[in-house]
Design goal:
Shape: flat
Number of strands: 0
Strand content: under 5%
Largest sheet: none
Order of helices and strands: HHHHH
Mean pLDDT: 81
Structural class: mainly alpha
Number of helices: 5
Distance between the termini: 45 Å
């Protein structure tokens, strides 16, 4: 099989390029343990989670924030794909 070059990809119709990116992402998502999370990401997440636990009333839920963003309409992509429970402080999903 001939390797795909950047030039080959640039010649593809936009929809085909999007499908290619989706296929690549899906193949990565099948093995999440292979994707190393940098230590500084983990530290930042811990810092933010600690801040949330210290003052749960501070900040806004994602559902509220996205309504404030003009022209924001990514919900069809992210609401179904993102597991909000990983950042929820309780058992309910945002």
């Amino acid at each position: 099989m001939k390797p795909i070059t950047a030039a080959d990809i640039a010649e593809m119709p936009l929809e085909q390029r999007i499908q290619l990116v989706e296929a690549i992402w899906d193949s990565i998502a099948e093995i999440p343990e292979a994707v190393e999370i940098p230590a500084w990401h983990k530290q930042e997440l811990e810092k933010r989670l600690a801040a949330h636990h210290a003052d749960p009333a501070e900040g806004s839920p994602w559902q509220v924030v996205k309504k404030r963003i003009p022209g924001y309409n990514y919900s069809a992509l992210f609401d179904k794909a993102f597991d909000y429970s990983v950042i929820s402080s309780g058992s309910e999903k945002s």
